[in-house]
Amino acid sequence: MIYDLAKFLHITGVAMLMGNITVTAIWKFFADRDGRPEVLGFAQKLVTYTDWSMTAWGAALIIIGGYGMAIAAGYPLGEGWLLWSQVLFFLSGLIWLLAIVPIQVKQARLAKAFPAGDVGEAYRALSRRWLAWGLVSTVPLVMATWLMIAKPI
User: Fold this and answer.
1) DSSP one-letter string for 8-74
2) What is the pLDDT of residue 153?
3) pTM to 2 decimals?
4) Burial code of 135-153, b = ≥16 C-beta within 10 A, e = fewer?
5) pLDDT level of residue 106 (50, 70, 90 thresholds)
6) Which residues span the domain enclosing 30?
7) Is the distance from CB of 60 to CB of 13 less than 8 angstroms?
8) Domain total in the chain
């Protein structure tokens, strides 16, 4: 029963995290292409909201559920696929915290003060960096997800 509850939390967290990062990247990309300050300001606000409501909580559920399953099943946390899944997951989290969140904070500040009719080059440059770092941070998450499913090593 404990294992099943932990597995439910873990899978729910994966769905929340992976779904949010994918959808957010897509709609923010299209909002950035639209270019209207009011659209970008709204999109930027939602990036912040969804990061704290879906990304952060999804990551928390992944951690709680994952460690709960490992402990309940007696899996060795420091070996093979489980070790590498943790390394990749935390690497992605570090990229998010150290690169993506600071960019989002800067963009949110800029979005509050967009000049009439233009968002400015600073915002557009940060958007390109946000998308690039977002893609970089997604690779280890996808790899960790594959390791969790396939358990190859």
Assistant:
1) HHHHHHHHHHHHHHHHHHHHHHHHHHH--HHHHHHHHHHHHHHIIIIIHHHHHHHHHHHHHHHHHHT
2) 76
3) 0.89
4) eebbebbebbbebbeeeee
5) very high
6) 2-150
7) yes
8) 1
